[in-house]
Amino acid sequence: MSDPSAASIVSTPRHEQPTQMVPATPGQPENARNEKPRGLLGDAWQDLRRKPLFWVSATLIVLFVLMSVFPSLFTSGDPENGVLARSRVEPSGDAWFGYDVQGRDVFARTIYGANASIVVSLLSVMGTMLIGGTMGIIAGYRGGWVDAVLSRVADIFFGLPFVLGAIVILTTFNGAGTDNSEWQIKGLVIGSLVLLGWPVVMRLMRSSVLATKEADYIVAARAMGASTGRIILKHLLPNCLAPLLVYGTIMVGSFIGAEATLSFLGIGLKHPVVSWGIMINEAQQYLRPSPYLLFFPSAFLVTAVLSFVMLGEVVREALDPKLR
To answer: Count of H helices and E strands in the chain?
Structure first.
C-alpha cells in the first residue's frame, strides 16, 4: 500500500513538561492559579473543537458507525430477500433507493452494507497498528541487527503490490468453489489487509521512536534504572502515538476503499455478506438502464472514505505544532 504523507506525519514529539504551579498575578481569578498546563492531546482538542471540518467529519463517522452497529434504526427492510416482480423498480416513496435486479430494497442493502465495510476496515486497522506498531517500537528502540532484520522483512512485504498481493491471497483461500462462512470471508479479507499494510505502520513508528528515544527524559529514566518495559510504556509510547493516530484515521478510509475494490473484483467479500463493494459489482451491468443501482452505494462509499480522510487531516494539523 502506498504511504500517503507518512513523512509529513512524523515530527519530533514535544517533551514532557513537569507540572508547575504558576503564581497568579494580583486580580487574577482563583481558578487560573490552580490551572495545570495542557499536554499534547489537550492542546489538540482545544484546536479541533474550533474547526468546522472536524465536526462535519466526526458527525458523518458517528452516523456510519450507528448504521453499522444498529442498522434497524435506519430501515426495516430486508437486505437479503426480494421479490422478482419488483426487479429494477426505480426509486419512489415506497423504496427511496429503488429495487435491485433481484427485487431487493437498495436502501436496506446500502444501510446494512455499512456493517461489513466499517467492521472490516476498523479491525484491519487495529491489527495493522498492533503488528506494525509493535515491530516499529522494537526495531527503533533496540537498533543494531534487530532493526536491520525487521526492516528487511518489512521491505519484502512493502515491495509486494497491494492489490496483486490481495488477489493472490484471496484467490487461494476464498476463490471459486470455497464454502466459507460470513465471518471466515471477513477474516480472510481482514488478514490480507493486515498482512500487506503493516510495513507502513512499522516504518512510521520506527521513525518516531528514533526521533524520541534520545530525548532528555528518556535518558534520565534510563539513568535512574527504569526497566525497558517501563521506558517504552510510560515514556516512549505516549510520545510516539500521535503520528499513528493520524495515519490510523486516514488508513480506515483507505481500507474501506480497498475492501470495496476487492469486493468489486469478485475476490473480496461475497454472499451472504452485504457490502457496498458487492452492490457496486452487481450494478455495473445495469449502469445505463438503472444508474441508481450504482449511484447510491457509491455515494455512501465515497462519503465514508472522505469522512475518515478529512478527520485524519484535521487531527494531523492539530497534533503538529508546525501546522498551527
So the answer is: 13, 0
Type of residue at 237 = L
How would you class 322 by CB atoms within 10 Å of its CB: exposed for 0-12, middle for 13-18, buried for 19 or more? exposed
pLDDT of the residue at 22: 47
C-alpha–C-alpha distance, residues 313 and 320, integer Å? 11
Q: Which of 188, 184, 187, 193 lies closest to 258 in space, CA to CA?
A: 193
Instruction: Quote the pTM value.
Output: 0.80
> 59-69, pLDDT tens digit by residue?
999 999 999 88
Average pLDDT in the 288-317 region?
A: 89
Local structure of residue 99 (DSSP, 8 states): B
The CA–CA distances, whole Å, from 324 to 13, 314, 316 equal 15, 11, 10
Closest CA to 312 of 264, 263, 256: 256
Residue range 169-179: average pLDDT? 78
Measured between alpha carbons, how far is 131 from 139 in angstroms, rounded to an integer? Answer: 12
Confidence tier at 149 by pLDDT (50, 70, 90):
very high
* Cα dist from 262 to 27, 247, 276, 280, whole Å: 64, 22, 11, 11
Residue at 194: amino acid letter: V
Half-sphere exposure of 212 (CA within 13 A, CB side): 29
